[in-house]
Amino acid sequence: MRRNCNSGFKSPVQSPCSSQSSRGSEFSLQKEVSELKGKVAALDQEISQLESEGLSVAELEEHITLLHEYNELKDAGQMLLGRLAVLRGVTTKVLYAEFGMNLED
C-alpha cells in the first residue's frame, strides 16, 4: 500500500474556526471544571465519612503494601509449581492436588 507524498498535511491540532466555536469550547471547559469540582467535593465528603468511621489513609496504605507483597509471593509460588510440574512431567493441577491446594488458591 503506497501513500501519496504529494497529499496535503493535515495537522492533528485543531484551530478555532470562529469566535462562536471558541465560546462553545469555553463553555464546555467551564462545565467540565464544574463537574470535576463536584467530584472532588463528593470524594472529600466520602473521605471524611470513612475517617469518622475510624479508617485512616495510613491503614489503607498498609493494606495495599501487604496485598502487593502477597501477590509477589503468590507469583513466586506459581512459578515454582510450574517448574516442578515441568520437571515431573505433570500438570500444575496434579501438583495442586498432591499438595492439598485448591485450584482457586
UniProtKB/TrEMBL annotation:
Ranges of biased composition (kind: Low complexity): 11-25
Pfam families tied to this protein: Swi5
Cellular component GO terms, alphabetical: Swi5-Sfr1 complex; Swi5-Swi2 complex
InterPro entries named in the record: DNA-repair_Swi5
Annotated region (Disordered), positions in chain: 1-26
One GO-annotated biological process of the protein: double-strand break repair via homologous recombination
Record key words, sorted: DNA damage, DNA repair
Function, in words: Component of the SWI5-SFR1 complex, a complex required for double-strand break repair via homologous recombination.
Family as reported in the entry's similarity comment: Belongs to the SWI5/SAE3 family.
Protein's name in the database: DNA repair protein SWI5 homolog
Organism: Xenopus laevis
Recorded name of the encoding gene: LOC121397155
